Description:
By secondary structure, this protein is mainly β. 12% of the residues lie in helices and 35% in strands.
Amino acid sequence: MYALGKLTPEIAPTAFVHPDAVVIGAVRLGPHASVWPAAVLRGDYGEITVGEATSIQDGSVLHTHHDAPTVLGRGCIVGHLAYLEGCVVEDDCLIGAGALVLRDASIGAGATVAAGALVQERAVVPPAHLAAGVPARVTAGGWSIEAIRRGAAVYVENSRRFVAELRRID
């Protein structure tokens, strides 16, 4: 974790940041949030907020703009190698592996962004809908909120395991 000038990460005591993740500047991690190996959260131009029990999985990148913060709600899952920049993701969402969510996009509560999807600038994905494809098209469907909540709970438990059992072997 790194401060950048006066910008210092704010990490809840119960949040988990893997030693090989990078968190820079104006980043706030809520209770039980988790950031996994090779993820980068770079809050240099604006703020990144990660809600309670939200997981940012391996290799994901979160960035921001001075006029567009990156905000993730409670209980979200951000899949491996996803990229989010200057967007809003409401509670209980799934952002699939390799998905891109660009500036000023809005992902409604309980929505799913499919693996590999490209959510373009200023796009809106309504609550409990699915965005899939390149560029993403929005349809009804996606994961159920209950399935997303179960997945988020798995990562909360996994972070507890890592806190208790992770050790470096040189």
